[in-house]
Amino acid sequence: MLRAAVSRLRAHLHPHPHAHHHHGLPSVTPAPPRDPERPPRLLVVQPRLRPGSLLDSKLAEALNLANSLEEPRDGFYKEGLAAKGAPPHLVAQNPSSRGRSHVDKFFGPGTVDNVKCYLRTSESEEGVDAVFVNAILTGIQQRNLEVAWGKPVLDRVGLIIEIFNAHAETKEAKLQSELAALMYMKTRLVRVRGPGGRLTFGSSGEAEVVSARGRGSGGRGFISGAGETELQLQRRRIQECRVRLLAQIEDVRRTRAIQRSNRKRHGNSFGQELVTVAVVGYTNAGKSTLVSALSETDLYSDDRLFATVDPRLRSVILPSGRKALLSDTVGFISDLPVQLVEAFHATLEEVVEADMLVHVLDSSAPNIEEHRSTVLQVLQQIGVSQDKINSMIEVWNKIDIVDNNDNDVTDDIEDEIFLTEGEEDKEEELFSENDVPAEESSFESLDDGTDSEYLSEENLEGNNGEISSSLEPSEMRAMNSVSSSSKDCFGELCGPETISTDSCSSTQPMSTCHVKTSAVTGTGLQELLELIDKKLTERQTIVERSYGPFDRKWRPSSSVVGEKAAEQ
Ligand SMILES: Nc1nc2c(ncn2[C@@H]2O[C@H](COP(=O)(O)OP(=O)(O)OP(=O)(O)O)[C@@H](O)[C@H]2O)c(=O)[nH]1
Ligand SMILES: [Mg+2]
């Protein structure tokens, strides 16, 4: 009921369908009649990034995000993600890379026009329901782009929230994604002067936009008075909604806390404390697949991003016979504002309170380093102790596809990147320069401010080689070198015997134990279970040895500390 109320509110504030294609709300411009069952079709606009490999991975993620916005019916999606193919997309000049982000529309006038042209020509074909700009826009920029393009515009945060909303199934996940939506919307209230000179909300008017942050009447005379009142009304409604949501989420949190303490108190049938291992990681790393494989159960896994929004617990018997609970949870992603992470507080508390963390990484991802640092950052944000982060086990998953991942990222992307006439020579230069090692390639100086902002299709002919070769991810090289340096630990147990080796010492941040796995083929799963077992035993010994409640943190065993001290 609350969800419906929020939807109504959102529709009122935001009267276009980007948020709710699935709810069939009216659109800004009369869109061609479309099948309400069909997931929304988004045009992806990706600001250009350097080096090329970074652009490739961000674009691939953007396309995956665009394809992920779909509501499952009875727990299933209409078609597999692979069947969908890449959505239409453009690579645009990145205004922020030149330090001159346009306050009013984010992009420069050339880009805005080109996207408009693209939309006009595509209208006759399949049509696009909304535009997804893979950047963080201000409310004003979003609204101005909507006016310019005549289509709903979603930025990165907006789309992710919509995906959360579409995928949430349990009450807990629904409440939290509603809260995320509300918090996002609150920063996005803008007034627009409508066609009749009236101030309205939404994108029907021309671009006289006033920030909702309440810059006040600012000498705007009588119209601003009425506008302010309406704005205040909207803000109050949002505030009321938020208070109600927070109260309900507090209930969820309380229930979860009780469940957790029951688990701790009653433990398993042997009277042992029932420990929880939280499985965390970037979205699509394979957390659900891994938890399913380890626990021999069936959790929903999918190539869609944020396939899991609902937290799930699965029990697993470790090699020692001890029973543990694995907690599968929502994945993380880069560039999410902290308030949105906070909206998922109740769910993420499971991670904070877990006895141990397992960090799943997709080792086939070209920007694995960025994924890793995003996850570490979020863990810190939600209040996981540094000790727990340091003693986390890293799982390098999808090892089965690591060797042949060299060209899968751009395979179906390349032909659709656009170039504008007049820009050919320069762009050719850009692409061939991608051959140089990633660290050395900086092309910012080549962007000299012309307004032609696209790469044209014809121009990519003959350049494909360069693009693919630019894909060789330097991160993978870095990873391989880590891999060889951590051989001592790898595949073995990183217990007290090996803890003094560089690769596994928990006293050294970031030198975490890792296991290479494939959740699909089962490679490395036994090693992982053994490692979890070992770490838990280690932890328990420490807890037992400690004297007071303040010592109940993970620490290297005293013998190791003693050894270290003896060395010095
Ligand atoms: N080749 C290969 N594919 C894998 C492996 N593990 C998972 N996948 C695939 O990767 C995709 C994502 O897996 P999920 O388990 O849904 O990933 P997740 O981390 O739970 O993702 P979110 O819930 O969306 O955050 C699915 O299509 C899986 O089949 C693996 O070890 N090898
Ligand atoms: Mg999942």
SSE arrangement:
Layout: H1 2-13, E1 42-47, H2 52-68, H3 81-84, E2 89-92, H4 109-123, E3 130-133, H5 139-149, E4 153-155, H6 156-167, H7 171-186, E5 190-193, E6 199-200, E7 206-211, H8 221-266, E8 275-281, H9 287-295, E9 312-317, E10 323-328, H10 338-343, H11 345-353, E11 356-362, H12 368-381, H13 386-390, E12 393-397, H14 424-433, H15 464-470, H16 474-485, E13 513-516, H17 525-545, H18 558-567
The structure holds guanosine-5'-triphosphate and magnesium ion (MG).
GO cellular component, one term: cytoplasm
Pfam families: GTP-bdg_M (PF16360), GTP-bdg_N (PF13167), MMR_HSR1 (PF01926)
Keywords: GTP-binding, Magnesium, Metal-binding, Nucleotide-binding
Rg over CA atoms, rounded to whole Å, is: 26 Å
Globally, the shape reads globular
Residue fraction in strands: 5-15%
What average pLDDT do the residues reach?
69
Terminal-residue CA separation = 65 Å
Class from secondary-structure proportions: alpha/beta
Low-confidence stretches: 12-32, 192-225, 405-510, 547-568
CATH class of one domain: Alpha Beta
CATH superfamily of one domain: P-loop containing nucleotide triphosphate hydrolases
**Biggest pleated sheet:** 6 strands, mixed
Bound compounds, each kind once, are:
guanosine-5'-triphosphate, magnesium ion
Number of helices: 18
CATH-level-2 architecture of one domain: 3-Layer(aba) Sandwich
Number of strands: 13
CATH topology description of one domain: Rossmann fold
InterPro entries: G_HFLX_dom, GTP-bd, GTP-bd_M, GTPase_HflX, GTPase_HflX_N, GTPase_HflX_N_sf, P-loop_NTPase
GO molecular function: GTP binding; metal ion binding; ribosome binding
Keywords: GTP-binding, Magnesium, Metal-binding, Nucleotide-binding
Protein name: Os03g0727900 protein
